[in-house]
Amino acid sequence: MQTIVQRTVWIAIVVLMCTSLQAQTSTFKAPPPRFTDPQRRARLAAAFPEIDALFREFATRAHVPGAAWGIVIDGELAHFGTAGLRDLGSKAPVERDTAFRIASMTKSFTAMSILKLRDEGKLALDDPAERYVPEMKALLYPTTDSPRVMIRHLLSHSEGFPEDNPWGDRQLADTDAQLSKMIAGGIPFSHAPGIAYEYSNYGFAILGRIVANVTDSSGTPRSTAYERYVTENILKPLGMTSTMLEPSSVPSSKLAIGYRWEDDRWKEEPILPHGAFGAMGGMTTTIPDLARYVSVFLDAWPPRDGSEKGPIKRASLREMQQLWKPSGASISRDASGTLQLLSAGYGFGLRLQQNCTFNTMVLHGGGLPGYGSQMLWLPDYGVGMIAFGNLRYTPWGATVNAALAALTRTGALEPRAVQPSPALNAAREAAEKLVIQWDDQTADSIAAENLFLDRDKPHRRADLDDLHKSVGACRARGRFDHLENALRGDWTMDCDRGKANVSITLAPTMPPKVQFFSATVTTAERPPGGSCPQ
């Protein structure tokens, strides 16, 4: 009987402990950031006519025969525009289903394939590349202490190979045998692997070979095996039915013919077929298809609970959009004279930029003889932009930036708002009570172990007495003005003769308690965030 009682008591204790832990966990968890403006989509759409004018004016000025562009908002192609001709000979206009070659934007598809294989346990990013491409075993490294080239290096352009634009563009149609012979013959290093960013088409051709060798052990040509894997595992799951790696597979009535402007006239460029270098820049697609692709990256944000859509995990999509190798920073003034800071680098198959307006811009351009393209999106804003042209290396950068500026001027291009955790809301309510009238019991209930070691209760109470002498009695605000994240925020309380700024940060404990608490007289309004000095 005693054993049964003891067992019953033990089970009850376990249940209570589990219930308590669940309560603590739910107190910590915060809802994901969200957009708060119900008119956001309609307000952004007000900029579409101006954006169309920007793209058409650029196409005329830069002698672009034909162009197409699109704006993606919250996973949908919200706007589409065209200008000019896809084929000068037949005078065929650019249409919604016109396919352009997107060149180096192909690299992100290769990177996505590598991460899918990583997620499936078929390779590791820190594996030496020579494990899957034996021809690399004979490489002569620049120093005796150089690490072997890893897959991670290839994905982030940090393998140490020299920058190879525009040489790489002309290798697009190389055969598998040519690539194998080239690798076995040696590759010169400009840096030891892992220490510097340098753009390498060659490195992504090797990644394409890795995809082929890991997924197909038959006698299928390696470039064909790569094409098959990307088509079956990336393109088809996304419904990208108009996207091809071999341009001859595109119906002639849909393909934009590539040109260069030379001697005051357009000259047609030959279209190189998909070959061993296709993994670095061979893909052909349409605006609607690429909008689906951009939407997948945008949908990876914010991190959240819920089912996965694929073709790879949301966490892996976010991993591709993280800065893995910086490429430098610069300061300049824009056309209005405003000082601008730009820092940049490379993720996995994608470029990353940060400026005075946007903390994170994910992008990639593509240029080949006959074509120029650009895709850019803002993960925190749910907005992306795509542009295609059938002019040699069509330079879309300035026009895309101008289009972003037009969206910004609507006032609706705002990031998702961070949402406080229940624990932070509870701590704010308690902190407001302390500001209004100090109470030791309330203070003890929210304090992390460091709080009164850093500044004891008598001194904190005296600090608040001094605050009241300056601004008088204060009233509860009931909400945060600014959230750094789900565990840190600040707000302003109205007082009889002024305002008080209150700030709290929760500790990494369960349940989270207050490790930092400050209440000071507000002397000025918070400066606007995300702006550089003038």
Describe the structure.
The protein is of the alpha+beta class and 534 residues long. The protein has three domains: 45-97 and 289-409, DD-peptidase/beta-lactamase superfamily (Beta-lactamase, 3-Layer(aba) Sandwich); 106-249, 3-Layer(aba) Sandwich (Beta-lactamase), CATH 3.40.710.10; 422-521. Helix content is 34%, strand content 20%. The chain contains 16 helices and 17 strands. It has a nine-stranded antiparallel β-sheet, sandwiched between helices. Strands 14-15-16-17 form a four-stranded antiparallel β-sheet, covered by helices on one side. Strand 15 and strand 16 form a beta hairpin. Helix 3 runs antiparallel to helix 12 (397-409), helix 4 (106-119) crosses helix 7 (201-215) and helix 4 (106-119) crosses helix 8. The termini are far apart. Mean pLDDT is 93; it is low at 9-26.
Key traits:
single chain; alpha+beta; Beta-lactamase; about 20% strand; nine-stranded antiparallel beta sheet; about 525 residues; 3 domains
